[in-house]
Amino acid sequence: MQGDFNRSTENCAAALNTTQQEAEWAYAQCPDVDECGLGLHDCHREAKCTNTHGSYNCHCRRGFIGDGRTSCVRTCFETCIHGYCAGAPDYKCQCNLGWTGGDCSINCGCNNHSTCSEAVGKCDECQNWTEGEFCERCSAGSFGNATSIIGCQPCDCNGHGNEALGVCDVQTGECFCQDNTEGIHCEVCNREFYGDPRDGGQCFFQCEPRGMLTHIGRQGIGSMQSHKSIYGGSETRECLWIIRPRTSGGSLLNTSLIQLHINREDLNVSCVDNAVYVYDGLPDLTGNTQQSQLLAVFCNQDSTAMTVEAHTGHLTVYYRQGPTGQGFNAMYSVFSCSSGTCQPPHVCNDQGKCVCPPGFTGPHCAIERCPGTAVSPSGGENVI
Prior knowledge:
- This protein is elongated.
- Among the domains are: about 30-75, Laminin; about 205-370, Sandwich (Jelly Rolls), CATH 2.60.120.
- The chain is built from 3 helices and 32 strands.
- The strands form 12 sheets. Strands 15, 16, 18, 20, 21, 24 and 26 form a 7-stranded mixed β-sheet that branches.
- It has helices at about 10-15, 35-40, 290-295, and strands at about 45-50, 55-60, 65, 75, 85, 95, 100, 105, 130, 135-140, 140-145, 150-155, 180, 190, 195, 205, 210-215, 220-225, 240-245, 255-260, 265-270, 275-280, 295-300, 305-310, 315-320, 325-335, 345-350, 355, 360, 365-370, 375, 380-384.
- A hairpin with a 2-residue loop joins β1 and β2 (about 55-60).
- By secondary structure, it is mainly beta.
- Keywords: Calcium, Disulfide bond, EGF-like domain, Glycoprotein, Laminin EGF-like domain, Membrane, Repeat, Signal, Transmembrane, Transmembrane helix.
- It comes from Phlebotomus papatasi.
- It is a single-pass type I membrane protein.
- Its main location: membrane.
């Protein structure tokens, strides 16, 4: 189009020569207007105007972000390469784990598992289940490769991994199971046990005619499943559990304290038909001496505390299977000074027994002892 900055004309001569005479020079096209230089632009005050032929561009200045015309919002002055802008009031880069520097471009040398506030290569604290000088190893309770993108993952053992062994294999993630469980993730109970160990559930040692339990850790017993001979026949109906804790070397823990607990919802035994009998020691179930060793008799009508303690280092539970659908599940724990499992509030006395602190008694050491009583060597009370 021909013309000047004001309007179009038929030819350049008409625009430049009012006498309508032929001009000695002319433009091939209208010259460009520098809107930026002439202040004819509408860029934001925090934007830079860049002239182009026939137009112009608006770009927010460094440290601001937006379309350059209607908006330029303050941001970090540096481009956060491995991080993000923290915003007001400092507007500084917040680096991703394992990176440092003003623009988060410097690798800490910690395999992206730690900060390095003091110096590059000096890892502050390894995270993401890693350990080592440069966070190069998976820590106990995890598996994988700390130096790879995948990194380390926590062991998935449903809460039954053996911590003494590292919970699971550091490379494969296969669990080192305990609590009478087995499987890659400790998701099933061992033979002769029943229950659902997933999500921290328990396994219970089934009804046996003479079941021996020697483990120190927290264990379960129950009558909801009975032993059945591989040669056929009916299931066992006379249930007897004898708890005699032993050390890892096989020695009996005769000074141990054994605590048995039955949750109310885990007990369905009619008092008319039967009950659960708990003894301190190894009673003669055919004679009369058993009564002196009887700790408790549990059935549905029992409203007393559901926790009892054996102080002789042995605990016996007897139950005769009743009608279908009846039975119980119980948990027991072993507290021993020699094995280091005497847990608060219990304390170790001079005889090496795990007992309540002076002045208290009861399964949880929460009952104040009456004046005029003393603790016997077995851990019980004697009136004085």
